[in-house]
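Supplementary Methods S3. Complex input for the uridine-5'-diphosphate-bound model.
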Amino acid sequence: MNSPQRVMIVIGARPQFIKAAALHRALKNASGWEATWVHTGQHHDEALSTQFFHELELPEPQIQLSPRSDSRELRLGDMMHGIREAIQEVRPDWLLVFGDTDSTLAGAWAATAEEIPLVHVEAGLRSHRWSMPEEVNRVLTDRLSSLLVCPTDAAVAHLEREGISHTASTAPHPTQPWVLRTGDVMHDNALHYGAAWPESKRGQGRLLLTMHRPSNVDDPACLQAWLGAIGAWLEQVGHEATFPVHPRTARVLDAHQPAWREALREQHIFCTSPMGYVALLEAVCDAPLVLTDSGGVQKEAYSLGTRCLVLRDTTEWVEQVERGHSVLVSEPGELSRLADKMLGMGRFDTDDLYGNGHAAGDILRCMNEA
Ligand code: UDP
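Predicted complex, serialized as structure tokens:
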């Protein structure tokens, strides 16, 4: 019998716990794999971490890091050091990272230092905004990866433009990488949890709002301008929105606006704590329209057939915009016109843009072939 392939999976932030759930299901259905889970500790509280482990039945990480949180660079350094030590202990065949957070970059750096082939899930995405930490993380991670797993054709094209294209080498290496197009693991999850929900309920509830990108929320005036525009439009169209408030956004509101929850309720915006994953998916499904600056929530809107206002001037998920299912809103002054238009268009039938719900299994197959 062949010995199992050993993969070390690095996770650390909310979107990664969700992406990891699809991979965990695929690993349970596949044979010949031994997984070591490393939690970097980037997100470590109940709202952004613990609840997802319970809800998504993720395994208890074998290795739990506790990086310092005094500054981004100290945290990054601690995560790099901790993951490198984990690799030295386990000597996996692969190290796998998801997305574009500091945990992603820390894993990529540690794998490179220890000469372990790196798999990047969500390779090739670009916002073309070098000022976004996520953009720097994903470009650097792609450059260090041996196996680049792209969820869209646009992602494959971005890599090609940067001189990273598929080679037929037997052993993938950062200088001779494999670039593969699979579906998207978040779409796997949305179909897994959401496919059976009744059609009659969809689009019948409150709108859903999420905002946490530093460019939108760190400046209190900017955040107020967005919330003011959203509240005024909700008043005008007679709708209400649910707003699960990210801790980063709550910190800014706490510091600058006493009783902000009550003030927002006056503007038809109903604040909640960060939701669990299934509750969030249901809220996306029930919403006649989603307003968000989250990458994951944009995709979930697509997977569940809900139109989406992207509260940014750029997106990594360009195909949704090209097809008219999402629209970019680059500043609050544009909101009411675009929101009217998208609300009027109603729900749509989703398709296989992000695959057929089996992306995670395809990723394991690619790793087996490499
Ligand atoms: N999410 C959640 N509860 C919430 C808000 C978001 O479970 O209250 C989930 C949602 O599924 C989303 C994921 O968290 O896809 C991504 O997180 P986030 O928006 O923090 O990161 P991004 O996708 O923008 O990197």
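The radius of gyration is 20 Å. The mean pLDDT is 96.
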